[in-house]
Design goal:
Elements lengths: L7 H13 L15 H25 L5 H8 L2 H34 L5 H18 L1 H28 L17 H13 L21 H27 L1 H6 L3 H6 L3 E2 L3 E2 L2 H31 L7 H14 L4 H48 L1
Helix pairs in contact: 1-6, 1-8, 1-11, 2-7, 2-8, 2-13, 3-4, 3-13, 4-5, 4-11, 4-12, 4-13, 5-6, 5-11, 5-12, 6-11
């Protein structure tokens, strides 16, 4: 089978969709109330640094994905253990993303439809996309991403035209100092979505032009961060910080405020399109990375594992928590410390150290041979 590739435009679209993804369902930085958008803006700067760190890992070991890099740094038996850990991690995040979408549709869009049906349908779509290949995901995302920009612009225009957008609701700035921003940043707002960008270490080897992709990655991460900042500001300026914090799905709550001449209203479909596209992209990337881990461990094409993995994600996205409140508390209290920080920062830092050691050792060997 021919090697799959994605272009730089497709990579940009995928990164934007991935970062918007479930982040627009559970909006970032609301712990800082009126300063939530400042928290997201600062997290974008740190997220850019984190993403460049992950990209540098691939630069030091080109044409290798995360699992192959682990073997390159250590040996296959140890790499198999780490690969199994990471593929379980990617599947777990995918389950959480699917649960986010299931709770959203069950609460706002399809209250009578069982959440199991919604989740299974979405996972079926994601599994089919990945079966067709990562290139198909790239082309699909490239086509639909411009609509997300258009619909987000329309939401802003409609909120302003309906008189529900007021900058005064986002004031005063820094009324409680910088402490709420710092406490909002660490660790949760760095883990999601920026720390989750580690999954792209399984995507970068498929780029058609890896050398020119660094600038594209940096610009796209910045753009997606600014979109998240803008979305958070819109939510605060329309709902107010107190209502936004209490709302389970703030973006859709803000969208439902729109009413122009009793004619343009109930345009939830615009926000839902943006969220759904992001969820599909994020779920697809996470599933693809997990499948590449299985491919590495068992040395079989990843398509062999698509059906069982989609079934596992469908089931565990429901079993993962008893309720939506339990689901959110688990993501806020336990997961950042037990999973995100070790797997997003500690182990990649160790890999970076090992890669640099190998690089310097290789350079010293070349210099010694040239002298001889």
């Amino acid at each position: 089978m021919l090697k799959e590739n994605i272009s730089l435009n497709q990579l940009a679209a995928v990164i934007i969709g991935f970062n918007l993804g479930s982040t627009l369902v559970v909006v970032m930085g609301l712990e800082a109330y009126e300063d939530a958008w400042i928290t997201v803006l600062f997290s974008t700067l740190l997220g850019l640094i984190i993403t460049m760190f992950y990209f540098s890992i691939n630069e030091l070991a080109p044409d290798k994905n995360l699992f192959e890099i682990v073997e390159f740094c250590m040996n296959r038996p140890i790499a198999i253990g780490f690969s199994f850990l990471y593929l379980i991690y990617f599947l777990y995040i995918a389950c959480r993303v699917m649960r986010d979408f299931g709770e959203l549709t069950s609460s706002f869009i399809l209250p009578i439809t069982p959440i199991e049906v919604t989740v299974f349908t979405l996972v079926l779509v994601i599994g089919y996309i990945i079966y067709l290949g990562i290139e198909v995901l790239g082309r699909t995302t490239e086509i639909f991403t411009p609509y997300s920009f258009i619909f987000l612009s329309l939401l802003i225009i409609f909120l302003f035209a309906s008189g529900n957008l007021s900058v005064s609701k986002a004031l005063p700035m820094l009324a409680k100092g910088i402490n709420p921003i710092i406490s909002g940043l660490f660790p949760y707002e760095l883990n999601r979505p920026w720390g989750e960008m580690i999954v792209f270490t399984c995507i970068f080897p498929y780029l058609t032009n890896f050398k020119a992709s660094k600038m594209v990655v940096g610009v796209t991460v910045t753009v997606s961060g600014l979109l998240l900042t803008l979305s958070t500001f819109i939510i605060i300026a329309s709902l107010g910080s107190n209502v936004a914090v209490r709302s389970s799905f703030p973006l859709l709550s803000a969208t439902r405020l729109i009413s122009i001449a009793n004619f343009i209203e109930r345009i939830d479909a615009l926000a839902l399109f943006i969220i759904t596209l992001g969820i599909i992209v994020k779920g697809s990337i996470l599933l693809f990375a997990a499948l590449k881990g299985l491919e590495y461990i068992f040395r079989l094409p990843y398509r062999y594992f698509i059906i069982p993995m989609t079934c596992i994600i469908s089931m565990f996205s429901i079993f993962i928590s008893l309720s939506y409140i339990d689901h959110i508390q688990e993501g806020l209290k336990a997961i950042p410390f037990l999973l995100h920080i070790p797997l997003q920062f500690f182990l990649p830092s160790f890999l970076m150290f090992m890669l640099l050691v190998k690089k310097f050792k290789k350079q010293n060997d070349k210099q010694s041979k040239s002298l001889n």
